[in-house]
Amino acid sequence: xNPVAISAYTVTSALGLGLEATLAALREMRxxxxxxxxxxxxxxxxxxxxxxxxxxxxxAPLANFDCRNNRLAWxxxxxxxxxxxxxxxxxxxGADRVGVFLGTSTSGLLQTELAYRxxxxxxxxxxDFLYGPTQNTYSVAAFAAQALDLQGPSWVVSTxxxxxxxxxGTAARLMQLGLIDAAVVGGVDSLCLTTLYGFNSLELLxxxxxxxxxxxxxxxxxxxxxxxALLERESTHPQGWLLGVGExxxxxxxxxxHPEGAGAIAAMRAALASAGLQPGxxxxxxxxxxxxxxxxxxxxxxxxxxxxTATPASSTKGATGHTLGAAGGVEAAISLLALQHGLMPxxxxxxxxxxxxxxDYLLSNREGPVKRVLSNSFGFGxxxxxxxxxxxx
Amino acid sequence: MSTNxxxxxxxxxxxxxxxxGLATWAASQAVLRGEQLHASTATVLPPPARLPAAExxxxxxxxxxxxxxxxxxxxxxxxxxGTxxxxxxSSSGECSNCHSLCEALATPAPVVSPTRFTNSVHNASxxxxxxxxxxxxxSTSLCAFxxxxxxxxxxxxxxxxxxxxxxxxxxxxxxxxxPLNSARPLPDHFGAALLLSPAxxxxxxxxxxxxxAGDGPQAAPMADASLDALRRVIPAAAALPLLVALAQxxxxxxxxxxxxxxxxxxxxxEPVGAS
Lengths: 393, 275
Fold this sequence. Notes:
The complex is a heterodimer.
Chain A: E1 4-13, E2 16-17, H1 18-27, E3 34-35, E4 46-48, H2 68-77, H3 82-93, E5 98-103, H4 109-116, H5 131-135, H6 139-147, E6 154-157, H7 163-176, E7 182-189, H8 193-201, E8 222-223, E9 225-232, E10 240-249, H9 262-275, E11 284-286, H10 293-307, E12 312-314, H11 317-320, H12 327-341, E13 343-344, E14 360-361, E15 366-367, E16 372-379, E17 383-390
Parallel strand pairs in A: 4-8, 5-6, 5-7, 11-12, 11-16, 12-14
Antiparallel strand pairs in A: 1-2, 1-9, 1-10, 3-4, 7-9, 10-17, 13-15, 16-17
Helix pairs in contact in A: 2-6, 7-12, 9-10
Chain B: E1 8-18, H1 29-32, H2 53-58, H3 61-77, E2 85-89, H4 95-105, H5 114-118, H6 124-133, E3 139-143, H7 148-163, E4 167-173, H8 180-183, E5 190-197, E6 206-214, H9 225-233, H10 240-248, E7 252-260, E8 263-271
Helix pairs in contact in B: 3-6
């Protein structure tokens, strides 16, 4: 594919609001995870909650969109001059030539879960519940398009935890075909009961802080995040480049990855081919790395088959938690920070490395020139996406 | 909106259809051609024959619906489903699992079913299909609320044009149980599938060119009022004007399908011979 300029990006997660807070936390090897306080849930787990989401207020004309997910989206859009960058792109290309493609898995589902707790005596939902602008999977992209005053094509990709990686592919395709000149991509997913109780029921939720690549890893810690990137046909000051996109499916199981990582291998090879690069051209791999025993083992095997064991790699989910549908967007932002600052972030919370996993998994931060990064995102339903990013220089 | 792109040109190789009074694409021809009035009898979802027995019992209505139309389109196109990339688009996903989970989560000590949770993801139908046919090709699952069919058609046609490989597009919507049905009323199940390919083959039904059009007209009401009612209330049924044109086998320039408020799709359709 033709490289696509990334003219602005931002991320808001449990590490903080915006790029500066995120970079500082990564440099200090600080995790944003903490024992769950969200809704006083009696679950023995850690989560990556974003501070200040409940207090965020949507602008009055967008009040119908009010729910935790869109509040988090609004908080995220206001960081790092992102609103101004989009306004400039809108002025340059026209509102109808800028698309909005976001990934989410649960969108505003929490709003519905809470409404079910307030059902009337006859079983009906409370009158203030608004399905379209809050619960529907599309609501976050509808909200963002309206908040950013964009009128290009728009939709949500919802392929579980690969969602917000795949939107980079969607935007790149439509730009290459001339349907749009720019796009806002990324993902937003917020804490809700379905994912916390659901992963708990699958016994995939760790009762301690998640420990990707640790021999005693027990599963994931769930986080929430909003991450956005502005892709443009041309940019005077690109922050980085999207060089390649690879997408595949496992065709194997709804919630377990193919044990040898067959689908993951296909996605990584497709991403390299799309970028016109060889495995040796990649300086750092941001792993999907959820810290479930089977996911990490399958990914270690898959990455090894494509790259060998010499490429530095880490999962940043020990810092942010697994932000599900937003994970691809969050890790795209971390990949761009790695490129801009020459920082390959450590995988946190490892006490005893799993000796069966063979990658060069970073246990402390490594600094040095980073020209190209590959970021993996894999999801339920066997959906896989790998992205290759390049530095602006 | 400007339309300074050439349009996305693809070939339609096979169609699947299932909705109220529309049992299959093949069985719906007389109604779609206007030779017979549409009678809105409740959609009957066939058991998903492709799934192993255990999975078949677990499959919710969204999976059954998507599989039924996907199977019909793939069979008509005579392609190998095991190598096929897909785009699944739905406004609503797996509604019955969403409802059950919300009910369970509203109790004082929630216990949720792991199977329901796993199959509550928006891409459950895509996952089930790719497992059933063993395809590792890419799959995207989308949602654009009432514009979900238009979004899926753009994504699928764009991928065909760029990758030069066929794609199966599956658009489907199932109603929620109460109380969500009152907040989001969909009268019945509706699914449509199109097998799109980059080049004409012996199975090709028509050439289709998709343009994005803003500030243009909305889709025109259809001649059959009952079909038109479906088009207006079920997002996947936004495909109906295209399906009618395909069934009628007439060349059409500028057929409008609704997408987002303020943005529609303009389709040029050129059928292959008489159908």
